[in-house]
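Format notes (please read before filing issues)

Several people have asked whether sequences and structure tokens are stored in separate files. They are not. Every record keeps both together, in the order shown below: the sequence lines, then the token lines. Line labels are part of the format and must not be stripped during preprocessing.
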Amino acid sequence: MFHNPATKEVLIMIEPVADKPHAQTVEQWRNDVKVATVLSPIASEEWISLSGTRALKVINGTQDSTKSENIYLVHDSKTFAIRAYPNTSSYPVYQRMLSTFRFTNR
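Then the structure lines:
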């Protein structure tokens, strides 16, 4: 989790999620994960590309003040959720951070 030390406001959360089951396609798995990881209703969703990887961007919540942006992506069999809150002053920083997101080989 990254936060602004001055305001304690959360900028971004990157969380590992359970590995993708071998019996499911990446799309099926991301659709399962989007429902299982955030209990708020889905307001919108769209497929995006993040660092050349197909990802699912979901906006959850019913009111602007409580909406969250959740991006789900699978790299190899590892699944990640990247989360932020669009209606905060830190959202432009999150967008800049997201634009630099890359997977590296170790």
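For reference, the curators noted about this record: The longest strand covers residues 42-50. The mean pLDDT is 86.
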